[in-house]
Amino acid sequence: MRRTVRAAVAGAAASLLIAGCSGQSLEGNDDKSSATGGQTTLKVAFWGDMGLDALKAKYEKEHPNVKIVLNTGEFNAQHEDLQKKLVAGSGAPDISAVDEGFIVQFRNQGDKFVNLLDKGGADFQSKYLDWKWKASMSADGKQIGLGTDVGGLAMCYRSDLFEKAGLPKDRDAVSKLWPSWDKFIEVGKQYTKATGKKFVDSGTNMFNPVLAQQPVGFYNDQEQLVMDGGPKVAFDVSMKTIDAGISANLVSFQANWNTGFKKDQFAALACPAWMLGHIQETAPDQKGKWDIAAIPGGGGNWGGSWWTIPSQGKNIDAAADFVKWMVQPEQQIEVFKTVGNLPSQPALYKDPAVLDYKKEFMSNAPTGQIFAATAENLKPQYLGKKNGPTRVAVENVIRRVQQGGLKSDAAWAEAVKQAEKVAKTGKS
Amino acid sequence: MSLTELRPAARQPAPPPPPGQAKHWLYRFDTKTIPYIFISPFFILFAIFGVFPLIFNGIVALRNWRLDDPTLTGWAGFANFSRLLSDEDFWNALGNTFGIFILSTVPQLLIALIIANLLNRKLRGNTYWRIGILLPYLTPVVASTLVFAIFFARDNGLANWFLSLVGFGQEAPLDWRAQKWSAWIAIAAMVNWKWIGYNALLYLSAMQAIPRDVYEAAAVDGASPWRQLWKITVPMIQPVVVFTVILSTIGGLQLFNEPMMFDENPQSADGGSAHQFQTIAQLIYKVGWKDLDLGYAAAMSWALFLIILIVAGINTLLTKRIGGDR
Lengths: 428, 326
Prior knowledge:
The complex is a heterodimer. A six-stranded mixed beta sheet of chain A has the order 2-1-3-8-4-9, sandwiched between helices. A three-stranded antiparallel beta sheet of chain A has the order 6-5-7. Chain A is built from 18 helices and nine strands. The N terminus of chain A is likely disordered. Helix content of chain A is about 50%, strand content about 10%. Chain A is α+β, with helices and mostly antiparallel strands. Chain A is globular and about 65 Å long. Chain B is an all-alpha fold. In chain B, about 70% of the residues lie in helices and about 0% in strands. A two-stranded antiparallel ribbon of chain B has the order 1-2. In chain B, a hairpin with a 7-residue loop joins strand 1 and strand 2. The model of chain B has no long low-confidence stretch (mean pLDDT about 85). The chains are: A alpha+beta, B mainly alpha. Chains A and B meet through helix 1, helix 3, helix 11 and helix 17 of A and helix 6 and helix 11 of B.
């Protein structure tokens, strides 16, 4: 019986914990009173820091009858939560951010979202990068989201550590060091030899940017898994990196990775625009020690999101107004300045506020110019419905090689096997 | 006999007057129904939170139910169960669960027994020790597991620092999560740490019911303390031993928190890059809420339920033989 008590206590503790985590998401739409007294409450779900704190204060001041509740969470968890709430038919936030890795999955359920073309969204089409606009369109022509940021792709590096290793420090000279990924690995070997430290954080963070540069990713636009194309190229680069002994073999976005930042465990990191905010948050004392160079292989995109409005919401019109306000140039520029997220409207790339902006934290690098150049010339990659889980499966194989459980020459066959397994599930 | 006859009849309480129809009904209601109403909250709650989920889960296990593909629905028969048999992830998880279970339960109960035996002697600061060993049990499992996850970190981890003191891992630190054996040991250490004190207290309370003179007689006969423990203490607290074994079996086979938070990427619920320490409970969670395949997850839950029943049964039989036959 004591076990029952202890189970009950554990259960209560767990439910408290769950309530603590999701308390905000529970109170959103279930709360029918969200429109009482002329007050409209809008629940906004996203991950990380999308620079909304300042926007929220500003919008609430301009619209005293609107209250905005921000709910930030873990990247995958937020998408999974949205999927569950869509199926359940209630409980979804009024506004939800959706990343490019999940946009195909959600646009296939276009009827569960507000068609923004009905809410005056059509005016925005000409403002967006063409591929960004199309990526969130459902097959029957509904627009489920308005783009907020694009990733772009560059290479962040620690100029202070580069200097100590006898490498150039200046961003243009550094860019010239690595026209290709092979050259990049060579530079890494030099660095490791000179300092005894590792050069990059992990094999997976070599795999992802290289894959992002390929014309075709895991899936082609017929939703067929094509491992022999882009994934093979990216996988080979990551294997070479691990074999060269220049990878610190950390797991991205986890506690040890964050420690790795602080302990100088790596000196270069492929970074989309949104990564800047993460570096700044993780290692605030490294201000001025980071700089941004071009990515080997030129260009590419990694990540970027849309604002979507699930149609189950009670305050669809108010939500649409807020989304349309958020994607206005003024707000987009403000977000760019606070967290670094690059807008997806090309007109802004010419705006002096973006063009001349220098990120103090990144040694005054002109982030607007750097990332805009990579985003504008982009040929977007089709990311299949199962892109997310497939990526996780292949990353796991790379991690096994890093941990020494798998030889790098046997790893590709294993990666194909694991990816096929993911692609197969659910089709039965 | 005569005494009873002497008792005056008038002092006997008068039988209650025959109740009227309404009163009669109330009376019957009071004696026959009210007790059931009083104990009903437990059964109602149990029906809602115990029986219903169990049955519902059984029904779901026989259906296709995918959250990511709502069109795929309908009866699946035993397809989910037959899929289990050929699912290597499931068998891998089963192996991990049993591996961690044995590594945690056996040392846990043995050490608990020895600690209880030590605490059963006359010690200075008795209460202090007894509360002290219960402290790990009071720690929230999430908090302690987070600390352990850092303790067993590859770089800058305390466990590797200790190993380096005795000369291991100088050139390449041990990656605890990379191999099955190291991951299992790390997770078993967390479980042991948490439950040893709890089990020791249970044993201790049972030991205190054993009469002192039994030990005195044994000591006179020249039995060593170790021999006393195994020949007197264990047989005499055998019901509690059976109890703890069953509880540890249930708990051990449902292990979830520790492997979940031990992973470097807890979000994925993968239990390591090659599922080195993915337990069944974790796999059920992953299949249900990550792959969004609720029917298959329900089938796994039922399989786990049956496995626990069988293992708990076997363990009970084995434990009952300790001392019971002697």
